[in-house]
Amino acid sequence: MNFRTRDLVVRYRKGAPAALSRVAMAAEPGSVFAVLGPNGSGKSTLMRALLRTVVRDSGEIHVGGRSIDDWSRRELSRTIGAVAQTEVISFPLSVRELVSMGRYPHLSPLRSEGPADREAVERALERCEAEELSAREVGTLSGGELQRVRIARALAQEPRALILDEPTASLDIHHEMAILRLLRRSADDGMTVVLITHELNLAARFADRLLLLDRGRVAATGSPAEVLREEVLEEVYRWRLRVREDPEVGRLTVTPLD
Ligand code: ADP
Ligand code: MG
Which of 49, 80, 196, 239 is an S-S bond match for 35, by CB 3.0 to 4.6 Å? Predict the structure, then answer.
């Protein structure tokens, strides 16, 4: 299930500068699509637009070949797994209960939780290496543990697409790599993965296509080699840096200079 936008414009207030300005993107099934850009460049706004939680000013958004306006809220929430940048969970819940919430879009008064739902929850906990946390109170988790559990909730939903906003920002190297490998495998199994990240090197390594935003506009888009170019990145990030091929991993690496 793909995501496509054309000439997408989002403005939070009338007359305010556009948070997204004429953005065109295409994220395809079976691939990881990375969204990059400095703070405030519109990455989270793009996620909200793709989930229809923000109203667009103009332009088109197509999800699975249909205008996003033709989707019901329920269809969208069943089909797309979302991990937002921040979330306040202020009521007492166990980890298993929180991950079970990923099944809610599939349940109804006529269809209560069954063995398949519980299996999806267990599988999601395992894939995020969070089984041993399942009985814990969510409020007692560390930032990184909570992040893994939130990703597990999105996977428990068994969505056709995943959109994640800086999902590994508070994870250590082991769990960051484990999550990226998991996202890569999900994409290889046919899922559409939209990954918002600040990690240029991990994007180069795990993503197929990149979108670099700068103040709401597309600064560059394409393969890692097309986007991760010194002159482009230096202008967008306003810092001198070096882009080199790392022979060890066979991918581009970006290093900021002093
Ligand atoms: P990023 O995720 O790349 O850091 P955002 O999409 O959050 O950027 O923000 C893009 C721009 O829109 C920023 O200028 C930000 O201040 C503004 N913005 C984001 N959310 C809101 C909001 N709810 N109300 C008003 N302005 C917002
Ligand atoms: Mg953001």
Answer: 196
